[in-house]
Fold each of these.
Amino acid sequence: MRLGIVRGSVVLSEAIPALRGTRMVIVEPVTAANLELNNGLGGGKAVIAADQLGPGIGQMVGFVEGRTAANPFSPMDVPVDAYCALIVDQVDFQPPLSIGSADRKVQK
Amino acid sequence: MFLARIDGTLTSTVKHETLEGCRFLIGQRLDADGGAIGDPLVLVDTLGAGRGTTVLVTTDNETLRNRVGKTTPARMVVCGLVDEPLQIHRTPVQPLPDGRGSVPVPSRDRQGAVLNRGATSHSRSVGRNSK
């Protein structure tokens, strides 16, 4: 599960039957640097995640990626590969100062 | 499975029903040189890992499905605590001229003489034969 900030929602006018009625949110993944600064910025590539929790715009959520993201819809076969699994109340993130950001490799 | 360093904690009230009562930690995946890489990850913990601990993380959803229910979406679970300190041995290597594979960099003394000549020449000949 990665952390992301909700930036909006997606509404489909036409969809395959399995996806009808599924609420979807636009999630911007939070990078380690932004989480450390707790600046409300994400920094990652936006992901569309299925959602049943209803987070507000700007809220931080935990989203699951991969095949297991469709598990909450079981036994229905839903082509969902990202799912908003929790809304964050509080996050406490402090990487060790001794290593700091120097050990963090730049993501391409 | 991969190694991660625990760098934080997370609390959540509104979450998927199967995740009620789970303990969440924030970890960073570790690279082969022990440095953190990638975005921070939310991990489910049952072993009581603390901040700064190096842990083994599985991405197999089966572990959690058996414990909290079949509809759980989460899959990153702390499945072991690593003995400290984390020791990673890395032999320096240099690429072969043809770009196919690499050989260990020979150790040299202060005058620049190769110390482990026998081992190095053997590695090089293996590299040539493999062409």
Amino acid sequence: MDFNFNEEQQMVYDSTKKFFEKETSGTLLRELMEDDKGYSPEVWKKMAELGWMGLLFKEEYGGFEGSFLDFALILEGMGKSAMPSPFLSTVILTGLIIQDNGSEELKKEYLPKIAEGECISTLAFLGRKGLYSKSELELEAKQVNGGYRISGAASFVPYAHVADNILCAAKTTDGKGVTLFMLDGKAPGIETINLHSISGKGVDCLVNFRDVQATPAQIVGEAGKGWEYIEAQWPKVAVALSCECVGGMDRVMELALNHVNERIQFGKPLSALQVVQHMCVDMAMKLETSRHTAHYAAWQINEGLDCTKEAAIAKSWCGEAFKVVTKIGHQLTGGIGFSKEFDLFLYTRNAKKLELLFGDGSFQRAIVADNIGL
Amino acid sequence: MDFKFTEEQVQFREEVKEFVTTEKEKGIFPFGNNCWMHLSSMEFSKEVAKKGLIGIAWPKEHGGRGMGYVDRVIMLEEMFRAGAPVAYHFMADRQVAPGIIHFGSDFLKKEFLSKIRNAEVCFCLLFSEPDAGSDLANCRTTAVEEGDYYIVNGQKVWTSNGHIADYGWALVKTNLDPAVSRYNAFSEMVIDMKSPGVTVRPLINSAGAHSFNEVYFDNVKVPKEYLVGTKDNGFRQIMTNLDFERAGIERLMQNSLTLDSLKDYVKTNDKGGKPLSQDPLIRDSIAKLEIEFEVGKLFIYYVASLLDKGKIPSYEAAMGKTFCTLYEAKLADVATTLMGLPGLLMPGSPEAPCNGMACEDYLWSPSYTLQGGVVEVLKNIVAQRGLKLGRKKK
């Protein structure tokens, strides 16, 4: 067993770190939170130039057939930087779903564009209650003249307002189940409304669909199997988000440790106080256990092993750990940590969001319970 | 990163599993929880020895198998999963032999290593004293040179298996000069527990079991060749050793039978015509335990992998032990609560689920976060050695 990075992984980790140190600034992150687009097109372009978007795609579709572990480390760097972008929704929630299930035509049309950074895409599959459940889906596709008309609403759709494409999950009226359609983001009948969420004004959207037309060629894979296709990506998404949590925790630790080492009270640094030291250790334990748990699940994915349980463990553990770490971070950094001048608030927000995205702790634990025969 | 076990490791795990299953099925050995502290069987340990499973991580030139620490964790994982009664050889294998190999003279190696490997001797650890718990350097037991001997006087306490041990592995004060730093005043030595002047008195723990003892030394003669390593260097030697003590999976799995029996209990008992295992809150509680267990296990393997790379995992081992014992302290609490009133039934009671295992464990559980370094001391180690906190500013 080797828990250390190999040379390539170390390179990916270091270069990602360097990239975000260069491209991220506190000012930019604060601007993006207020920005309508919610991401930086310049940074997005540079990320594409580094080959990140196509890392997991096959070479014939403009990809690099890279390792999921490398991908995981990039996500860790992203989490550490707190840089928002439509990366996951484009690469996994559209790209991988198409690569794994889509027709040759769809793959050829979209994957190279995504790999080039020329296509932002997202997945619309949640109802307004935001529940990860097939039965809560509010989009319906009616069959009309050999095509489809999609109507209804989807919510919590990241970056729908800037998306070139929206992959939408709709119940078909023939009762066959859920079907995925790859739509033009600006197709007639699509209306996007920005939600103001914990992570900013330009990230999540409510999307209304009014008789949006689709052809059978826009269906990804088989009609009626859409929900299964989404579920098949669940472990990858869960692990990717877990890695973001690890990166985020890493940064919060840095912020908090710097503070307790610098801040003098009662004539000595806060870090000389045992009670403060123990709080720091509690953070470190969350971080280190999360790191191994996330890497282990990422490794399982990379090896092609079934990791339903491991991914659920990672997401449940890392998601809750990140939140706890931000709470301890606040307690340690006091007033300055509660101000917008200090970067901690960026992570407090991300942590809460990452805790809930793609299933909170209890959602993941239900998966674990299923997998241990309960 | 590569989390794969080698072919040999996969095979080794199977071998151990098969061995443990066979021995358990014989029905003559006392399998159960807290097995490394409490369940001692020389006969079982001799079977372990025959199988070549004592000393697997010692170097070959000292009679070991030269296997790694990850291998050792694999072995212990399978033994603890079954609750194998390893107490007779456990301390000697884990701590005494590595200490002798690291620091001991050729005489000590010759005298003890093969006996330990063949499960012919049982060791106890003689560290804590009435005034030296977390503050181990406050030990007062003295060993004064007299001819070819040390004369030992004093008292040790919380000595697990002191009543069955043939030998003790002791920390004693050999430099009585008050001007000398207390960290340079101690030595490690082996003491024959049958020596005249050694008195062992049982201390019944709050769970009602006799696992600890008080050990008194009244002018006990210890031959000089039983001194381990360098005189007055004992404190440093012991600190190195403690990292090994803290690196093990025993801190995570001393109650693994309880988690299994809890899972069985909720699957086989109903509430309102539905198995308890379908109750969302019960499922969530058990999944929480399962997750912490898996997270802890991975961390233990991480620490073992550091040892295999030749690193001394001083703060990582402390972190692992903290995490794992906090989990252990919680396990029996959750298990008894989920079982409800039947969870309060003690071993031997009519109607006790899983023979009262959960209840008994609950009574043992306050000890987990104390033994081998309390959680708070371990956190100090992580903070100071790992996070480098509390150091003077340059």
Amino acid sequence: MTAATLPGFPRPIVRRRELGLLLAVAAALALGNLSLGLTRAGSLTVVDPAGLLIYLGALVAVHLALVTAGRRVDEVLLPTVGLLGGIGLLLAERLPQDLVVQRVGSTVLGLASLQLVWLILALVIAAVVAITVRSDRWLRLYKYTWAAAGLGLLALTFVLGTDVNGTRLTLDFGPVSGQPSELLKVILVVFFAAYLAENRVLLADARVRVVGRLTVPPAPYLLPAGLMLALALGIVVIQKDLGAALLFYAVFLCLFYLATGSKVDVALGIGLFLVGFVLLALVFPHVRDRVATWLDPWSDPLGTGFQTIQALHAFARGGLLGTGLGAGLPTIGGQLPIPAVHTDFPLAALGEELGMAGVLAILGCYLVVVARGLRIAAAAADDVRALLCAGLALVIGVQAAIIAAGNLKLIPLTGITLPFISYGGSSLLVNGLIVGLLLAFSDRGPLPPREPRRARRPAGGPG
Amino acid sequence: MTLQGPGRGHERPLGGRVARLSLVLALVYCGLTLGAGYWQVYRADDLSHDPTDAGMIAAARSVVRGRILDRDGHVLATSRLDAAGEPYRVYADASLSAPIGYASRLYGSAGLEAAYASELLGTGGDDPASRALAKFRPRTGRGDDLQTSLSLSLQKLAVSLLGSDRGAVVALDPRTGDVLAMASTPTYDASGIANPATSRAAFAAARNDPGQPLLDRAIQGRYVPGSVFKIVTAIAGLSSGAITPATTFPQQPAAETTGLLVDGYRVRDGHHLFTGSEVLDFTRATEVSCNIWYALAGLRTGGAGMDEAARRLGFGAPLPFDLPTAASQLTNSGGPLPGGFADDVELANAAYGQGEVLVTPLQMALVAATVANGGVEPQPRLVTAFVSPSGAVRDVAGGTLGRVLSQGDAGAITTAMVQAVEGADGQRFTTGAQVPGVTVAGKTGTAQLGGSGEPHSWFIGFAPAEAPTIAIAVIVEQGGHGGSRAAPLAGQMIAAFLAAKP
């Protein structure tokens, strides 16, 4: 600390890289907006200029807040996530506004307005968390408390929740409803990170022989994590939220590998998953149906296979370069071809209008988010924080991969959201929280004191 | 700030594992990329042109198909809106059913409506460049107009002349291949099939009609050609050098009364009443349609020469055309002799259009057009341009199918065909093809089908012989001798076309 920086009055730090990337994002989104307007009106038109400006303004505001706060946090995450959110907003502008309608007082908000509201709130959460969170003690010290709270919330949904599309995922709070399983994924990452960091040496070294040279960690050390995982999986499976179950399990395996480095355990874990999946398919008819639809959607093209087939046709119509924003998704009798396109199939919609090029760009953005997250993890000061950051980044990357693979019929379809793009309040808010935490934990500390002749400070963290 | 935190008991840094995990995740995303590539590139055409594709369904229901126009600007096909505001097709005349086809919400489409669906619906060309360009153009909700080479009046005339007979007429410009008329009878009620209110009844009526109106005889019908095929034999013989216009066969006059014996089979003729013991050369043999002379010419040319010339004319494969065509054949191509002939009897018979020869009317119109065009076969076409809703015209380039025979040989055949129509003896066989003030070149055919039924009546020809502007092929199923139905029909078509020309 130099004399110039008083506590509470940090020295602002110029974030050139972030600003430059944000400008590029703004240009891309403005172009997308113009393209949509051109398709709609036949002339150069901006669609809902207020919405676009508010969103870009919010991104810049977060940037300025980070500058003012003077924290040396990651400069790539915000623009990347901002681009994904902006693409989601463009899609929301493009889809029929009555897909989601919410009455607030006397005003009726449609899809795009609601998505904008959620995006702004998510950005606020990200900014507040990024600026105020300095320590992870509050997370790591109370891991069992957090876990209990998360499970309680989930159980509450199970008891009090409302059914949407036959699955009970939603909890109503007055006019607002939320899906607690979204929050649970953060809580699980916190718990696993704290737990695995604490026990990593024991899990890796204190092995129990099973057969031959095959060894596993001793049961007592596995028990808390296993129990937590089983509870979380059990509840979401009963709730038919198979995507969340797959996400939890995949992130747990990733973290387990990062903590212990044991490939054998991960392989065992994958084997266990496959066995469990087969058992699930035997027990639950809805799991069986999901798999049958995945294997051959064309066996029931107008029933269970309809959504999947329509999504594949949308990808096909898009081809390499897409139809252009607003020019795809032909309506038949006023109906969009893909049911639940704004929550479950945004990638198919974007794949049609932006083409394979757009799909690759979006997937690339998720990889950037993961890469930044893992980079922050690799640079973290201790194990808990490293695992925490890796887990948070993986939640985004794995979730995006699961829903993208489901959309592309590479794995059975699950009803989880495409992070930052799908419509959905709880999903956006929780993803905002994740971005905030990643930013906060990427802090490289205050600027070193000014020196008379200083070499350029190294870019990024130590690799 | 360092990887190795103070007091870390475990010596392996997280860093190495992070890198390995990143690699796994990158591979997963590579898998996603491959998945996207599979659906968006490899299966893109297959899925997006499927009739069940939402885009195809939506376009058919919302986009107003472009119009189809004839050469004089008459509207052949246009769209109207039904009570629900969805467009349906209306066609100018029933005579157009064969080339234009229909577009129906229930029964899909046929003819030009099917062949040019993406242009008519404005879903554009399939090449990446035009797809990319389409993104920067506003959607019009209206497809391109098709400019065709058809003449509505000539088309109507052809169908009315065919009357209640089954048959086909193909008339085209020998210089360009532009199809002027392409009639197939019986016709069907394409407007009825397209109209949602009458669709089912009209389609059932067409499908259950024993006359098979849904079959486009002009391009899908395969007929025994009879003597019109002698022009193909002449092309084969002259271009291979096996015969010249002066070629005579000494055994021919004697054989006229007894029949020409080929491997125990007798080729017979019906013209010796007029020619007696005259030794016929190429022109005279064509004028009186001498089967014996042509059988001998075919035998001298040989199976390989016949096959080679037929292939140059387009036999053996569908013709390159706007609509799907059936392939014409010289033989069943199973025989041991060159060209697939079973024996010399088949070859001798094929030389005057019997044997196993089967031809489409379009193919025979092209044979006439090739002779008319000085030996170069024009590529037939119906659509000459696309006109976008904004008025931009995109011309379709014409082409040729290449030179089939020399200009001199074509001239010799023209002379013979003129003689067949205008010559004193030719007129006995080719009644009615003459047009006052115009020299017509032509050849009749009377295709024996075996059994007791009437033969098919054929005519191919062109006019004016000096500078042809129309080539024509006419077949009237079981219409009797070529001179009784087909030749007069062709004469009226030619007269009407030349009279209408400025």
Amino acid sequence: MSEHGESGVPLPPSAGGAADNLNAPLAPPTSGQGPMQDMASILLDSTQHFRLDVDQAPQAISTFRQVAHELRALMDEVRQLGNVKPPGLDAVSINAAKEISKWAVSEEPGSLQAALESGATQLDKAADALERSLQTHQQTDEVNATHLRSREL
Amino acid sequence: MRRSIPIVVALAAALAGCSAGSARSAGAGAAPASSASASADPIPPVRDPKNLAGTPPCALLTPAQLTANRIDQPGRPKDVVGTPGCEWSDRAYTREISMWADIGPDVLHNNYAQRDTYPVFEITQVAGHPAIRTKNLVNGTSCHFVVAAAEKQTLNVRFTSLRQGLEEPCGPARALAEAVMGNLPPHTS
């Protein structure tokens, strides 16, 4: 169990500790504003194909925007953690406040605030792209319906 | 030997400015480097203190100011790690404004200590009050201002432009911060 997961697949060397599990999602991106295969890049790439029920599209757009909004709220909270007040004047409280502040405003190139903003922007771009696709689809539908009606007459 | 000290200090200040990197902005409101004293406080004192503590966050902007800023939905109170705040957005989903008031911590000095973590960092002034402008990403859609209303009373303003490429976020963020500062009553200690 120390080297293999439940499925028998060898675990990576860093998969053992709780600290690793917490740190993994917070790892800064390697470069740029986001990972290579982010959601917006898939949605905006004409060579990529995906299928979405038209009836579900408005809900998907709303969900993307809601999550983007929550990421920005988290961005505000992370920023605020940089100003966390020690709950007491003892050394433990002061040190805890200092450590939380340090964690919140990492000096890594991709800080947590930047990663959250980047994620929110990607989700908004995905929502915008979906919204445009939906509008195009609805316009095409209307044109086709008008065309059919004129032929029936 | 005595005469060479100011030159060394000025050179050090100039080099420190260069080390900030090309992405870092030093706009018109940036604090000038002082050759007289390298250890001088980079954050100027508040000369005209305003009371930020007595106003609920969702009342920081008047209805007229919100309308002028295309906000057509009511403010939503929020909690920012125990600090009360408020956020606004519009139905067309073009902009999001978030504000909260820090009473107690010395936010501007804390931010100054964290200046290396922001790709855009500028010491500036908002309505005559010391302020810091930051962005998390050079081309990001969010811009953040912290403004010292009074000693240890700080206004936090974030403006996010939601439709890609429509709006540079720091102009509206500054205008909103100025509007709030104009609304605040004087601080009487």
